[in-house]
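dumping this here before i forget
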Amino acid sequence: MNYEETIAYLYHRLPAFHRVGGAAMKAGLTNITALCSALGDPHTHFKSIHVAGTNGKGSTSHMLSAILQSAGYKVGLHTSPHLKSFTERFKINGCPCSEETICAFVAENRGLIEKIQPSFFEISVALAFDYFAKEKVDIAVIEVGLGGRLDSTNIITPILSVITNISLDHTEFLGNTLPLIAAEKAGIIKPHIPVVVSETHPETEPVFRAKATEADSKIVFGDQQYEIIQSTLEKGKRVITVKSVRGETRNLAIDLLGVYQTKNVLGVLQAVDELKMLGWELSDQQVNEGLANATKLSQLKGRWQVLQEQPIVIADVAHNYGGLNETLSQLRQYEYTQLRFVLGFVKDKDVAGVLELFPKDAHYYFCAADLPRSLPADELKKIGNDLGLKGNAFASVHAALEAAQTESSPADFIYVGGSTFVVAEV
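structure:
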């Protein structure tokens, strides 16, 4: 099979959460354990960092990868979902794996796939572990797919665990309160393995501390060790001044522009401190270089990404209440004549609850990504209109964006998002 045939086979044979939602869920580690056992337990052949969280885990994973890469290490990076190509999920030093690698893995293991019948994500994780082991990476940064405790990535024993922001998302699987969701994320905490939590929250801190105590693991909260005392945008970078509890201050330039990245970077800086204590050589200069070039080094896209100027077009993959609340707060820092939103969502989100966040004086272009899981544009339009959001439904993401651009003046602001898959299409 060529690459297109291989991907078609995987989508046809295996349920994919990013396409069909909860029907693809196979809770538990039985399948991934069986897959990896048949492959020779590749996840035991390289060191790893495990990253979980509701929001920020992708950005955090890419920043850590970029820093380690800047320090000269050979770094594997496994993230999900992909934006354009399945190969994006498997990177080494920022380069996606080849299509030939995907084809060879599936061809060699087709019998195993049909015997175990894993989910699309489970086979993706197994492929990542096999690829990183064969390429002999120095370390791999492994992003959790959903939750943590029962996520397929949770068969690894990392040298460090990192948990970012906790917000309400995937409540049908993880629970409908922050402590319940935190308990699922805390499932990645392993005995005697240090854990960094990026952000302190009164409802979730006790959950993380209790799990760390149970596991006899060191736990440190990034925002209790570092604080941002200044943050500005300068020459295409977010420039921040960070102060540590030791009283030291340092200036950092980050090429991830979202204000919300200032929360993620505190966890990243503490993770770097923990890695140093574990013997990894990471100089301040290498950390600075990694953060300043994170999107370039790790090929990260879709995080407050500027697609066009005049009118400015920003794309962001924030897709739940917590993430969108942060991005909408950032919008208020900009000046514009008219604010326009190109929005699409998936069916299994609390769309009405999320849309309550959006301003009623903006103009809306409701759309749906080309995905079975997408909420139809007409349904989204009705929900939005009922909440006082004025706008029309469009046949595609591209049609919605084109209409927004056509109707805009150079001083307008166009935001594209609501779903990772909407951003993927632009």
